[in-house]
Amino acid sequence: MEIIRKTTSRCHVCAKQVEGAVVVSEGKAYLRRECPEHGEFQLLLSEHGKEYADLDRFYTEVHETSSLGRTMHTWVFATMDCQQKCPFCCTDCSDEKRSDSPWEELTWEDLQAVLKDFKRGKISFGGGEPTLHPNVLDFFREADRMGIAAQLATNGLFLASKDYCQKLKDNKVKEVRISLESIDPKDAVKLGLDPYVEPKLKAIQNLCDIGGIGITLSPTICRGVNEEQIYHIIEYAKDKPAIQAFSMQGFAWTGCGIGLPKDMMMTPDEMMDVIHRHYCSCDRSEVFALQKLAFAWLNIIGFKSCLKSEFMIFVRDAGRLRPITEFINLRRLDTMLNWWRRVLPKQRWLRGLFLIPVLIGGMSLKTLPLAPMFIKLAWANLTKLSVQDYPARLLSVGLNTNCSSLNADHTVNAHCVSGCIFKRDGVLHLTNTSTELLKNLENKC
Fold it and tell me: For the structural domain made of 73-401, what CATH number should be given?
């Protein structure tokens, strides 16, 4: 067994802090920890131990030599009401008002204060189910007036009405994120969500028909339940250019999810295995270069990045989806990125300057016709993280797993890309999402 680095983790039972380590054992990467009371536990991080260890070292070296950076995405927990009873809900929502909820509903005055103090990045109006909040439309009109990039994070049930979708557009909603665990009701039966599949698909079609609203689909992926939906949902989007991004969430053992088996939890690298199997002709080891590039780019533009996230980009081409791996020289890109990490100047602008030859080195002749689209995508993320501004031919796929006691890694948690705003005991709070989810989990355990 090789120890890649030591960290602080959590016990898989009581969620208390314990010492842990990222290790490679028998060719696979694991997060290991041992609780004096509940014994040892390890979580599989990747089937590709050597390559994951290199990615981990790259990530750590980049972040050890720079400031934390800005939060990329801030969630507003506006309400805890929800029509669904998702068994994996990380915010512990139900279809009834919860007397034991850790968060309180925000008033319009609270929401105005949130917008007034919001600085940079993207803000998501969520919950719970945000369309149940009485001021949801007011929030988006005000965000638009203030020039803030805002997203509606919804289960999509109200959007099965085309009139309601039109109302969203009329009230300046420019981006919608819809949870969708399956496009096949049969697969959703295992999660008890089969009644919701058809309304969600209707909602997506309504948004496509109306136009003018960028769509992000956000399925929660559970091992042994709906892994293949990663492929099926991506394919569903290939001829729908209004769907411009995916944020695929690996099931995390937190919130309502602590009632489910721990072995259902999936890490981003496991989800990437599914994508590679269906779409990529390159060697699986080469895909890690893309993740290194993402960490380098986010560091240069001043955003935090998370080791519990990976990404892929697809190009819509003649009725099929082609992964970005077909258009770049991954081996040369990896070699150049390793050169960049050895140089690694302290000044961010100088890091950016040194990244230019890295990007050039990763290009091939196939890259050149797509360069304007990649530049537009980079600019959209550099400015307002606006999915609506993504090129229609590109489909961005992010793979993430929320923090829980199973994957808690405090070296990484400090760089959580996601913030959350919530109300407790009548007071508004802002913290990183990792900290809040782990705190609530420890209280429940």
Answer: 3.20.20.70
